[in-house]
Design a protein that fits this description.
Layout: H1 6-28, H2 35-39, H3 46-55, H4 59-85
């Protein structure tokens, strides 16, 4: 019975590690530095977002986020596979 819980604890540990890593990455890169600016981000016009995309401001963050999501899907799939087939 206890061995069946090991994959789920591994998945929780991977999620916690990813959350802590993303928190430190956000703090180091200054994501939380300007709270006043963040308050008005949803009100910005689409043309401002398009200009930032054209400059490539989002490129690195998008690739990092996509890689983390892919890694979490792989971990979740492995956990489900172990839980179902054991």
């Amino acid at each position: 019975m206890a061995l069946g819980l090991v994959p789920w604890f591994c998945l929780m540990a991977a999620g916690l590690a990813a959350s802590v890593a993303l928190l430190f990455w956000g703090m180091r890169s200054g994501q939380f530095a300007d709270q006043e600016r963040a308050r008005y981000l949803p009100l910005r016009g689409e043309e401002t977002l398009q200009e930032e995309r054209e400059r490539g401001a989002f490129a690195r963050q998008v690739y990092v986020l996509a890689g983390l999501v892919a890694a979490l899907f792989v971990a979740f799939g492995a956990t489900l596979g172990i839980a179902v087939f054991k």
